[in-house]
Amino acid sequence: MHQVPGGMTTNLVAQLREMNALNRLDEVYQELPRVRKELGYPPLVTPTSQIVG
Q: Most buried by CB count within 10 Å: which residue of 3, 19, 23, 25?
């Protein structure tokens, strides 16, 4: 797993569960490095973590 803050992971899992898409968690983790690169490697703290995740 990439360096993802615990709160971001908790929120992500909850959102995927609500959408009945928890099985896609690995896809999201694989996509995070690309998204962070495209955004200029922002720090994953609130509110940025809410936008990225």
A: 25
What is the residue-level pLDDT of the chain in tens, covering all 53 positions? 557 778 888 888 999 999 999 999 999 989 988 988 998 988 777 777 666 66
CA separation (Å) from 33 to 15, 18, 20, 25, 37? 20, 24, 24, 14, 6
Cα pseudo-dihedral 32, 36, 41, 46, rounded to 10: -80
Q: Determine if the pTM surpasses 0.70.
A: no
How far is it, in rounded angstroms, from Cα 21 to Cα 1? Answer: 18
